[in-house]
Amino acid sequence: MNVSNSRREEPPKRGRAPREPKEPREKAKHPILRALGRTLATLICLGIMVCSLAAVAAVYYAVQATANDGNLLDLDNIELSQSSTVVATDPDTGAQVEYATLRSSNSHRVWADLEQIPTNLQYAFICTEDKDFYNEPGVNFKRTIGAMVNEYLLPIYSSKQGASTLEQQLIKNLTSDKSASGVEGALRKLREIYRALCLSRAYSKETILEAYLNTISFTGTIQGVQTAANEYFNKDVSQLTLWECATIASITKNPTNYNPYTNPENLIHRRNFIMYNMWQQGIISEEDYRNGAAQPLVLAEEDTNKKTSSVTSYFTDALFTEVVHDIMDKEGVDESTAQSMLYTGGYTIEATVNPKMQTAMENLMLNEGDAYFPAGWHEEEVTSISDDDVQVMNADGTPKTRTGDDGTVYYYRNVRTQAAMVTLDYDGNVLAMVGGLGEKTKSLSLNRAYSVTRQTGSTIKPIGAYALGVEYGLVNWSTMLNNSPLYQKQDMVIRDEDYCRKNGLMGLSDSQLKAYPNAWRSWPRNYGGNYGDGSDLPLWNGLARSLNTIAIRVGDLVGASNIFNFVYNTLQLTTLDPANDVGLAQMVMGSQTHGVTPTALAAAFQIFYDGEYTTPHLYTRVLDRDGNIYLENNATSYQALTPQTAYIMNRLLKNVLYSNVGTASGRYPNSNGMESFGKTGTASDEKDLWFVGGTPYYVTAVWWGYDAPYDMTNTLGKNQAKTRTCVTAWKAYMEQVQANLPYKAFPTSDGVVERAYCTQSGLLAGANCSSRATGYYRADDLPDTCNYSHSSGVAAAQSADTAPVVGQDTTGLDTD
What we know:
The protein is α+β, with helices and mostly antiparallel strands. Among the domains are: 37-65; 107-294, Orthogonal Bundle (Penicillin binding protein transpeptidase fold), CATH 1.10.3810.10; 752-786, no CATH class. 35% of the residues lie in helices and 15% in strands. The chain contains 25 helices and 26 strands. Helix 2 packs across helix 8 (242-251) and helix 11 (314-331) packs across helix 12 (335-344). The longest helix has 35 residues, at 31-65.
């Protein structure tokens, strides 16, 4: 083998191993971009953290801010908060009709269950206010976010956008958490959203919708669709037509702009827009929409039996006061609580008012042109002036004032005469009441017929002295009584206060005053200032003429304490003063400390029908919202006089109107031949004038005077027949309200007989007596028969009884 020719293999050269491939390297970013990226990432993280914290804080705030809601959003009990309704009996049909509502100044609501509310009315609200109502959790987040962006960040819409769901609107209705701007507005919205979410979780959509429809606000103080249906269309909500449903749903958008009475055209446009929405959303057909849009806006005519004005009548005011008082007694609560219960309890009050009589009395008491009650005016000094006052001004236009020694500034206002009238039946039901002249402008204003006491003047004579005199057998129709003062000047019993005042003798005692003969006067005087002529007059004549001299003698026989006990306890004239009113001046001539109200006085005259007295009352029952009896009036009835005395007194008081000597002679109402009775009354210095009159149907009291007692002679003159003012108004009123009533007579009594009496002696007329007249007597207590010889002029009784003189006396003021 040729080794030299072969190629020798050499071992490979040792070198470096191959490198691993490296990842491709990115091109380095600019340092500024790198910094911005890191900053953005950090901000995003911080934003997320802040938003999370804000969300937690918002939830915490909402929970804390609504923690005291309590029963505010308790929809299970919200139905209890609704107005109370006053119902009365329609005098024509006998049916019960709504007369008024008792509501606070905040709302008037009557509840309607969802089943009563037409589907069209439900969807009239849903389609326009919250079309996703049934599919959202109480809040429409899409609309809410859009509205917030538009409001606080960027104006993405051309106008302010609403995003409230029905739940949120309901919350606004139930809470005082109302609209605000800025930060507070955002916080309020947060509270509202949280409450809406909670409400949606706690209650069904049906419950929420029912609450919403019963709390939505309309014009004035009207709340709820039931009240709106009655107010605008005089219908129950269940009877509303499509276009009426749309009308009601329209008003709530803006009660002023869409007021049906002041802006009907705006309302029609809104109504048609709502029906269009209902068509577009498949609730109604196109035909329904077009038919509804073609309907004119026809509102209900005013119901004459219903007080639609927000100003309540004098009767309703008094009714409110009476029911509140009875609630206080029943529940043991204070007045404020009782008022709140009545405003929100949803009670039905069965009132005694006769709507036609109430309207007739209100119209008469408007006194247009001073038709019945002349206007007397005088200046009155007061420490403050209200908007209703007629302030007295100086010639230079500045207010007339006076500054007292203590720095008090006194102002002057012109005040005019006022009046009041009230009518009852003989079961104590108050049928009509007006407590002032002119148009009533305020609810719960001064009610002179119900809550203001006045001195009675002579109207107390028949219910006290005369009635008890006949009842006790002390006097009768023809008892002869002397027309002269009970006490003469020389008796030194009654002070002449004018003389004592002028001569500085007011501080002397009676024993010291004996040294001054002219410091005394005869008492009493008759109306007009005379002391009588000293003749003997039959009792009927003295009563018909309202002679104080005759009445005082009867009162002296009966006794002032007996009269007071009777009128205070039996006739319930409890505003009389037991400490100061037990005297002949107060109990016969009517010069009491405070006096009585027209309502109480009218009730007292009930006894001249059949002798029975019934407590005056303004309602029969109060029903709760479930129809259960909650209250019944606490009136009591009892026999105050025997029927015999009542009938005799009825005939005696008839003479006030029908005899030619009566103080109201000829002023009886012409009512289908029905009779009537009455009594005038004038307090001292003509400060209070009265008439109380009765017919077989009604008894009515009328008062006229100044609110602060003032002598009307100074403002109306001495020659005006002021004593006939009240009876003239009563006559006109009775003729109107009795015009269509069937004839009715006063009840008679089997124990009363008609007999002829001798006009000279007052005893029953003998066979030969030619001077005779007819009177009414108790059959078991007839006078003796008179043997009278006209030729000799001597009268002799077969027998005679002498009644004891009892009672007490105090000085008093002159009355009619």
